[in-house]
Amino acid sequence: MSKRILVAAHNHPALHPGGTEIFAHDLFRAYQRAGCEVLFLGATNQLHRQARPGTSFQGIGPAGDEVLLWSGHFDRFFMSQIDLYGVVPDLTELLNDFRPDVVHIHHLLLLGAEFPHIVRRTLPHCRIVATLHDYYPICHHDGLMVRTGAKELCHAASADRCHACFKDIPLDRFALRERHLKALLSTVDRFVAPSHFLKQRFVEWGLAEDLISVIPNGLPRRNTPAEAKRIVNDRPVFGYFGNLNPWKGITVLLEAARQLIAEELPFELRVHGGAPFQSESFVDEITRLFSETAPVVQQRGPYRREDVANLVAAVDCTIVPSIWWENAPLVIQEAQALGRPVIASNIGGMAEMIEDGLNGLTVAPGDPRGLASAMRRIADDPDFRRRLSANARVPDDIDTTARRYLDLIDAIAPKRIEAA
Which of 69, 193, 204, 382 could bridge to 43 as Cys pair (CB 3.0-4.6 Å)? Predict the structure, then answer.
């Protein structure tokens, strides 16, 4: 039987093309191809849209199956709506009008941690699935699980450890935050993690292990670019794809490139991505590093999702030098789908996607010397590059991923119906 599904995310890829928004929107379209009636709900604020008087909702796209929730009054600490009198009635009206059988939540930011509870109260029979894309419920530091001081990885959250990162926030508020989020998440029927690592982090935080399934993200099908068959040469082209921020490891990559330039290693590095909403000091630092490494390193700026396959196909190896526990970077999947080896940090979900010496190389995060060594190994041995390419792990297509989600939804239906 065809399902009616509401897909909800914390933004829309047309406004903010982050990995979570892109995957949520790809899955929305895959659900439609599977015969479901689907509505996409993306939350936004004044960074991307201004409020319109009289309604919390704005249309986006020509088909009428995508809407935005304007969320300009949001408490990022408790991940909650401040203006409940304005937002809750509108969300309730949307749920009553569309009456979904399933609500699939991809993030709580801007939507509000209350959203699953609003769904359950409004539609008791509705099945609620939440995909965990990062560590926001666990970590107030933008969901990074990286300490604010020395920037080291954080292995577990607690009120004391979190207070040490944010000394201006009273310790007891962190305990309240955890209880608040866990209480509201208790209304979710099933959680999905795209990596085993992410699942384990949430199990350690307190979510029931049997409520979290692992379903890897999938990619839309697309034609293979002609560049994908480019000949391996002695002067490799490396590529970086993604926003430029301190946690993506771009400074580590540029420092590694500077070392290799000093050694007169023949190579090229193309850096694709912008640096929106970054501090002046960070922008100054990367501007200096780009200047010192030009023209070997090329700063190519932001790119469109439609162009990513051609851009990835035009390089010999993709580099993902993140210094935080990335969950399931789309750029790794894009590279592997085109037979491109990847050099990635050996932490988080990245370590599940790239096996050192098989389909790429892994390096310690934050280590320019180690990253330079991996790049040198790729550059010095074209035959090694070919072997890595031949072993690329092609990800599932998004329609396969949608079927796995629909199977999961079918599995939780009897339990919810009996309980209602």
Answer: 69
Q: What are phi and psi of 86, to 5 degrees?
A: -90, -40
- For the stretch 13-31, pLDDT in tens is 999 888 899 999 999 999 9
Closest CA to 23 of 127, 129, 107, 100: 107
In this structure, the answer to whether residues 198 and 260 fall within a common structural domain is no
404 by Cβ neighbours in 10 Å (0-12 / 13-18 / 19+) ranks as middle
Are residues 53 and 107 located together in one domain of the fold? yes
> Residue 2: is it exposed, middle or buried by C-beta count within 10 angstroms (0-12/13-18/19+)?
exposed
Domain count, the chain: 2
To 5 degrees, how large is the angle CA 289–CA 319–CA 335? Answer: 140
Least confident of 41-55, 59-73, 110-124, 143-157: 41-55
Q: Which residue has the tokens 């990800």?
A: 395
DSSP 82: S
Q: Kindly state whether residues 326 and 196 are assigned to the same domain.
A: no
Q: 352 near 370, Cβ under 8 Å?
A: no
Q: Are residues 252 and 214 in the same domain?
A: no
**What tens digit of pLDDT does each residue of 228-263 get?**
666 556 689 999 999 999 999 999 999 999 999 999
Longest dimension (CA), the chain: 69
DSSP class of residue 229?
G
Residue with tokens 């994908």: 228
Q: Measure the CA angle with vertex 128, ends 99 and 10; round to 5°.
A: 90
Length of the chain: 420
Can you point out the beta strands (E) in 34-144? 37-44, 57-59, 66-70, 74-75, 80-81, 102-105, 127-131
The amino acid sitting at 262 is A
- Whose tokens are 């399902």? That residue is 3
Answer whether the bond into residue 295 is a cis peptide, omega within 30°: yes
Show the domain range for 43: 4-218+397-419
Q: What per-residue confidence (pLDDT) applies to 18?
A: 87
DSSP 205-255: HT--GGGEEE----B---PPPGGGGPPP-SS-EEEEES---GGGTHHHHHH
